[in-house]
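Exercise: predict the fold of this chain.
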Amino acid sequence: MRLIELYILRRIVVMFLAVLGSAVAITWIVQVLQRIDFLTTNGQSFWAVVKFGTLLLPAVIPLVMPFALVIAVSQTLSTMNQDSELVVINAAGASRMTVAKPVLTLAIIIAALSFLISSFVDPYSRMGMRTMLAESGADILNVLLQEGSFRKISDNFYVQIAERKSDGRIGGLFIADSREPNVDLIYYAADGVVANQNGRDVLLMSEGEVQRRDLKSNDVSIIRFDSYSFDISQFMENTGNVSFYAKDLPLTYLLSPDPNDPMLQTRPLAYKAELHERLTRWMYPIVFALIALVVAGDARSHREARLSATVTAISISLIVYWLGDSVGQGGSKNASLIKYNYIIPIAAIIIFGFLLITGRALALPTKWTDGISNISERIGVLLKKPLPALNIKPHKGEHS
């Protein structure tokens, strides 16, 4: 690889790592916050929080990498165009492949990493998360319920809690149980905790009362208690038997699944769809790299650059990814859609590869870019109009 190609590759790699790191960090924080109840109940330690958050990363990285690549490539090439570096490269007699070679090299490396992570690392992480949830007793009461929320656990069964205590206990418990025909049961308790008695999960309540109302006679009876045990085993996950789904299994298993697998017997199409999605999803980094090269790989004057090349590249990439993801999701319900897992990325590679080789540029039509520019200018004018009405006067010593 020549010096100029190494220079381009270095700049793109730095930008790619910056975008990838930021996106993964934000996504990781959001995912952890969504599961904060699990991480803070049952006395989970700090290392349990770190372990659980780490297990989330392999699912995020393959999803973010293609978009980080298209942003890095398009932004780097746009900056080089603004600094006239692409003009100098073209003037020196370098071919279009001088810019394309380092980009495609990086795209192939990222595609290989994406395939390895999504096919082997991510499934084992998902299995670890499911096992961790089951072993820690991550049941409905400890995961789904929020403080002050009124949640439906099953038909005619509702639970509300006032607070979660630092020791894992529940304060201010309310249960409405209408599962029994013609009988309404309402439980109040000042304190509660989930425990295991004789192999069954129970909710131990203290300092409360039970109100029983007969819907036929409208008779109401109230029983006060110091301690009351409520069987919730039917609502709890079975910690001794962890169920794994198609997304949780490695590629080697999907290629040759156990015919006696109960999940395979109930949802065979989901296994088939997941297999073909694993075999094709790795191609999107290459697709996105080609899109960025076609959109931003040529030297253009500032008059031609009516709309950001980065915006155009990301927009086209989102459309292609949306099409691929839609058929991937639909393949688990409709077998005829599975073939499009291959058709969409391969067709995109052929189309944008042809445009790259033939030297054709890809951009939005002039009317579209003019329309977008006009709309942006009008929005800017509308945003500036209210400002004078504020009549903000400068302080003493400041110039208006």
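Check your answer against the key: The radius of gyration is 29 Å.
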